[in-house]
Amino acid sequence: MSLAYLCLEAPREGVASYVHVHEIIAGLRKRGWTVDLVAPSHSGEWRRPGLMARVLKYAAMQISLTLKFRRYRAVYVRAHPLAFPLACAAKLFGIPLVHEVNGTYGDLYVAHPGARHGRRFLDAMQRRQFRWAAGVICVTPQLAQWVKNEIENRPVPVATIPNGANVELFSPSATISDAGISGQLPEKYVVFFGGLTRWHGIPQMLAALETKTWPKDVSLVVIGDGPEAPRLAAASDSRIVLLGRLPYTTVGGIVARAIAGLVPISDPDGRSSSAGLAPLKLYETLACAIPALVSDFPGQADLVREHDCGICFPPDDGEALASAVAVVDADPAAARAMGQRGAAAVRSHHSWNSRAGDTSDFLARIQASRD
């Protein structure tokens, strides 16, 4: 039960990949797996090296891992087109590769617009990896169907295992141990946490604050960093409280004190509407027993409606987001009931421990089919 976990994009604390990678590894180890994380050495740094330096690092990581193939029964790969050399080596040496898919090809070009010039080549490399895979794990049913279309009925097992929440760190009783952070928090606020990018809805949040609908006594607390951080910092609204990047273990207490959590993701290139969404912040928000205010896309909206644990609103509509904030502010009792339903659903069905169990079972089935 030895496994190498390859993550070419550095899982930096403060971004979703960090949580997903480390929570799944912890859960697999709990179930008896020996897991070695293979990730870039700059994972602990916020600033990434230049493109060429990263590509060379990716190559060196894959060469090193190939030389260690004998140590492992399988290799788990957070899907990336530049993992193609490892896929070739695994096919040559008969090592099963399992890919974890968190988005379509288009996600790469949202994060790295310059890569669009090589889109046909990069897409082909990723598609070939799927077709050679021993198995594929997707975070939404829509992504699972997309992968099945890409592999064109080849006998590759495809599973849907969504994201989850650490219900020990994110809970209604989560506290804030840092008095400095606690002192920065306003009396009443909604919270957004995650990467500060356009497609995570930063423009929509700013537009919502400018409306007359947003309650005057409700602040917006923002946790995270990214390219939209300067835009938030430049906003003249005193109700915006920027906390920057914080340790993963610190966030839960801040979320638990909010009246609601915001998940206002937009739809670049049709990605959200076609591939579905299962963002970590949704499960973590609900685990803290507060309502989730989410843009209306498959996956996240389905979960909110199923458990009546928040409000769905049209994407890229600042007025609609402000109205959702006003609703939870106007009726605290109804908001608390929404939060309690969400927390119960996450504890029962959507913890990281449960997700790791599903992942372990899938990996075990892959191994059994090859023994």
Describe, in plain words, how this protein is organized in 3D.
The chain is of the alpha/beta class and 371 residues long. 47% of the residues lie in helices and 15% in strands. The protein has helices spanning 16-30, 51-67, 84-93, 105-111, 119-132, 141-151, 179-184, 202-209, 229-234, 248-256, 271-275, 280-287, 300-307, 318-330, 332-349, 352-370; strands at 2-6, 34-38, 74-78, 97-101, 135-138, 158-160, 189-193, 219-223, 240-244, 260-263, 292-295, 310-313. The strands form 2 sheets. Strands 2-1-3-4-5-6 form a 6-stranded parallel β-sheet, with helices on both faces. A 6-stranded parallel β-sheet has the order 9-8-7-10-11-12, sandwiched between helices. It folds into 2 domains: 2-164 and 351-370, Glycogen Phosphorylase B (Rossmann fold, 3-Layer(aba) Sandwich); 179-349, 3-Layer(aba) Sandwich (Rossmann fold), CATH 3.40.50.2000. The radius of gyration is 21 Å and the shape is globular. The protein starts with a strand and ends with a helix.
